[in-house]
Amino acid sequence: MKKAFKVLGYLVLGIIVLLAAALTYVKLALPNVGDAPQLTVQATPEKIARGEYLANHVTVCMDCHSKRDWTKFSGPVTPGTLGMGGDRFDESVGMP
């Protein structure tokens, strides 16, 4: 019985040491970037047009975040659903 308590004590001590090492790493090794700055952006027509360009043509956000009509070739976006959520990517379509 003494041996079991001794092994259990070493196990608990090992966990405490690992936890202390992890906390030390997080505190000392990772950079302290501070709080995020408060930014305000003017909603000018140019900036809105740039955002629409980025969301629709560069990063193609709207392809996944809109409902699509898969009965048509290439599954075009259903009118009126732009950015309203789209297809589910789950196990039913083979995604993890």
Question: What is the compact description of this entry?
Answer:
With 96 residues, this protein is mainly α.
3D structure, described in words:
The structure is a single chain. The protein has 96 residues and is mainly α. The chain has a domain at 42-96. Helices cover 47% and strands 0% of the residues. It is built from three helices and no strands. The longest helix is centred in the first third of the chain and has 27 residues, at 2-28. The model has no long low-confidence stretch (mean pLDDT 89).
The sequence of SSEs as H and E is HHH
Q: What is the rounded Rg? A: 26 Å
Fraction of residues in helix: 40-55%
Uncertain runs = none
Principal-axes geometry comes out as elongated
Fraction of residues in β-strands: under 5%
Helix and strand content put the structural class at mainly alpha
Distance between the termini: 46 Å
- The tally of beta strands, per DSSP, is 0
List keywords for this structure.
0% strand; 96 residues; mainly alpha; 3 helices
Secondary-structure blueprint of this entry?
Elements: H1 2-28, H2 45-58, H3 61-64
